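4.2 Preliminary Data

To establish feasibility before requesting continued support, the project team ran the inverse folding procedure on a target of 400 residues. The structure was first converted into the token representation described in Section 3, and no sequence information of any kind was made available to the design step. The complete token record follows.
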């Protein structure tokens, strides 16, 4: 199937110049041409005149299973969250709950223009739960890296390692900062044996394990360190030089008091942080607010007018690279998969306008792998209201 998006304001997402009144052609799920007045009798033609056409947003860190719990933790401290959400609620999750949560989270992501997610999937506690998560995503239509949280279940990890379509696998571990050194070394080695990206929460700082990991040859571009609020400039240079990915989740980090965003420290060292939503218990389920928070923090930190449009790359191409999808998505590039969003609502379309002025309500059309999943502001395949109602019922039961 071919789709031609006509006459849009194209933002490639890879740092290249914005392209006014430009067409994008997709065929068989792949971007095959970008240019003005492309002559092609496409199966579907979408008029994007006056609208932004850009890569789908990439959420590099989200605990998707918490989608039904949206808004329950406005004043939660981290210990509150660990006890309530990762303790009581997670223990009550059945496989069918994990499926519903994955499906609801996928639908909410697509509705907000997020086409790819690294799911730090705490619910992969049994083989049955893992199957349910995969089934939810198969129905969801989102591009997702399922970060399995039980390294001991090697059969599940091997299955994930063999998946290379919309659903692929990763490993989500405690890591040497919050877990044991020996476990971290063994788990990173296992992930590399299977070809899986590895994500871990970390704060960095003077007592972090990363200098030791550097000496042991454990750092590399397959590692994604989340938060890193205490990261020092020297540590940032070491990680950036090793190609390690860093993901910041500025809304949750500020709301829960984790500390100042590491975005600027990593940027000064030559790194480009990815962005994540993290948890929706106290944050919106989209990347528009994280982009704005990042821009605000960086302008205050640097005391410069840091260009708003540059933040788009942190939510697209740098996000895709950080979760192992850089060869597939993250930019509008001929040969990449057709993960594309169309945004309305700007009197003069621009990347800076997207970052500073838009919300999920401006997500007009969404394509994932060349398939239209949202059109004219409405999801094509999901009843989001019904999913949210079911999610509320799930939340009430698990919180009771």
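Position-by-position output of the design step:
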């Amino acid at each position: 199937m071919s789709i031609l998006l006509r006459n849009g304001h194209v933002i490639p997402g890879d740092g290249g110049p914005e392209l006014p009144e430009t067409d994008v052609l997709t065929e068989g799920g792949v971007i095959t041409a970008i240019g003005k007045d492309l002559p092609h009798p496409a199966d579907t033609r979408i008029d994007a005149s006056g609208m932004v056409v850009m890569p789908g947003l990439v959420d590099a860190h989200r605990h998707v299973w918490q989608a039904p719990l949206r808004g329950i933790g406005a004043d939660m401290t981290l210990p509150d969250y660990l006890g309530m959400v990762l303790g009581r609620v997670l223990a009550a999750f059945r496989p069918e709950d994990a499926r519903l949560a994955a499906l609801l989270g996928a639908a909410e992501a697509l509705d907000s223009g997020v086409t790819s997610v690294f799911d730090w999937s705490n619910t992969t506690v049994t083989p049955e739960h893992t199957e349910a998560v995969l089934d939810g995503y198969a129905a969801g239509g989102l591009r997702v890296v399922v970060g399995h949280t039980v390294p001991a279940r090697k059969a599940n990890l091997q299955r994930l390692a063999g998946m290379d379509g919309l659903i692929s696998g990763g490993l989500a571990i405690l890591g040497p900062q919050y877990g044991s050194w020996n476990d971290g070394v063994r788990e990173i080695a296992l992930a590399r044996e299977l070809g899986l990206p590895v994500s871990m929460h970390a704060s960095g700082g003077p007592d972090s394990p990363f200098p030791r990991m550097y000496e042991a040859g454990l750092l590399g571009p397959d590692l994604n360190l989340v938060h890193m609020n205490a990261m020092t400039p020297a540590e940032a240079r070491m990680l950036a030089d090793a190609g390690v990915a860093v993901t910041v989740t500025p809304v949750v980090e500020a709301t829960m008091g984790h500390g100042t965003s590491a975005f600027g420290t990593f940027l000064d060292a030559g790194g480009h942080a990815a962005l994540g939503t993290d948890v929706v218990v106290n944050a919106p389920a989209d990347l528009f607010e994280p982009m704005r928070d990042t821009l605000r923090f960086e302008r205050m930190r640097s005391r410069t007018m840091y260009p708003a449009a540059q933040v788009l790359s942190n939510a697209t191409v740098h996000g895709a690279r950080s979760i192992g999808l850089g060869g597939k998505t993250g930019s509008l590039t001929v040969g990449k998969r057709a993960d594309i969003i169309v945004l309305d609502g700007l009197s003069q379309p621009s990347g800076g306008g997207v970052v500073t002025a838009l919300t999920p309500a401006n997500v007009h059309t969404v394509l994932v792998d060349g398939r239209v999943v949202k059109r004219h502001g409405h999801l094509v395949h999901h009843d989001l209201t019904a999913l949210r109602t079911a999610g509320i019922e799930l939340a009430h039961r698990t919180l009771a």
